[in-house]
# Entry
Amino acid sequence: MNRITARTVEEGTGGPFAALVLDSDTGDVVSAGVNLVLSANVAPAHAEVVALSLAQTRVGDWNPGTDPARPRALVVNAQPCVMCLGTLIWSGVKALDFSVPGFEAERITGFDEGPVPADWREQLESAALPSTRGCSRKSARRFWKTSEAAWQQARLRSTTADDLDLGGGGGPP
Ligand SMILES: [Zn+2]
# Structure
């Protein structure tokens, strides 16, 4: 996941977010998603939404959790925002595993993760998502440290390009 996210930042196609939908028992990857908001100009194209949508398409069912013998999990390199938590509830995927808390992702990226309620874990549990794990994996922590520098450089490049385009564009803000 770190390699996918690093490539997204390096190529300037999106924010430093990646998500996988895995078969919980085997660990097989059902789908992978990256943040496509900037490259596609689609605000809801967060990595989680992309991964969950692709999983539904691949499984051929809007509810990939229909078969209880094949539980699936969403694995993300940062805590999902309020929109992605809502998408997860309706996705059929029954477990969530993420690396860093939302406030840390907000600090690094400058993105607003939205009004995530303080009791979001309890709300997910009441929506039949019994497993919500936030962990602090060393590899994820290392990645976010390096990603922070790369993301700040990418933002600087983007800002500089925008500044140079002032007066010559005519495109959307
Ligand atoms: Zn999101």
Summary: Residues 138-165 form the longest helix (28 residues). Strands lie at 18-23, 29-34, 72-78, 95-100, 131-134.
